Amino acid sequence: MYYRLDQDLEEFLTYVYTLFKPHEVLVILTSDHGSSPSYDFGREACDRFNTRQFEVIVNGFLSARYGPGNWV
Hints:
By secondary structure, this protein is mainly α. It is built from 2 helices and no strands. The protein has one domain. It is 43% helix and 0% strand. The radius of gyration is 17 Å and the shape is flat. The relative contact order is 0.07.
């Protein structure tokens, strides 16, 4: 368990905002939920997150918005 995550995030973001303007920063929080059971052994069928597909979609959006580039 992680205690006081909000305080650590506040300190981290305060530091980041000294380097960049807030509108120049994108923060994404994710978790692996520790050691959860494998999807392959679950009772219900489920999808997996396709990181390559996500990268292509985000790069496409950012390229359309800000011009060509390898954004991700």
